Amino acid sequence: MSLTVFGGSLEFVAVSMLPAPFAPAQVMAITCMVQARHLFYGIAMLDRYRDMGWKKAYLIFGLCDETFSINYSARIPEGVDRGWFYFFVTLLNHFYWVSGATIGGVAGSLVAFDTSGLEFVMTAMFVVIFLDQWLKERRHWTALIGVGAAAGCRLVFGADSFVVPTMVCILVLLMAPRRPIEVEGGLL
User: Fold this and answer.
1) How confident is the model at residue 188 (pLDDT cuts 50, 70, 90)?
2) Can you give the C-alpha Rg of the chain in angstroms?
3) N-terminal to C-terminal alpha carbon distance within the chain
4) How far apart are CA 133 and CA 140, in angstroms?
5) DSSP letter string over 162-181?
6) What are the residues whose beta carbons fall under 8 Å from the beta carbon of 83, sequence distance 6 or more?
7) Domain residue limits, the chain
8) Other beta carbons within 10 Å of 142
9) What is the pTM of this model?
10) What's the mean pLDDT when you consider all of the chain?
11) pLDDT digits (tens, 9 = 90+) for 81-115
């Protein structure tokens, strides 16, 4: 599964949906909600992945949290082809993911241990990605839009229902003034 479903949180959801009755509409809706953050990764990478030829399809498929963080913030050395740099970062991340999932699956079936307390790992990773982007941008429009939309939607929709409205708000707020944000924020 880790070879074709390159999204950690979606893999966990998929495992719980496999034994459930066949419900393609429900699976599609849940998949879109769980992986919706990739819309924002894709928007941020539109110009960077332009003119990548045959590599573009794999770069889009392999755009996970870690690949986005590296490819978005990397300072590619002079003389290194941008397309091959992005491609090999994506390929290595995919290889590490598949290898880690395979080793973890085998080791997990052989060794039992208590995993309580590890829930913070994904939150910590997103905090690190946020801080890295904050430090790289001259102006912080995208971060402020994200934090503001999340806070506003949480107040309006409550803690149990704010994620989807937040993503819609962020998407609209980032797409409308996309070019000015990129130019003014030092992203171009």
Assistant:
1) very low
2) 18
3) 36
4) 9
5) -HHHHHHHHHHHHHTTHHHH
6) 51, 52, 53, 55
7) 1-35
8) 21
9) 0.62
10) 83
11) 999 999 999 999 999 989 988 898 898 888 887 77
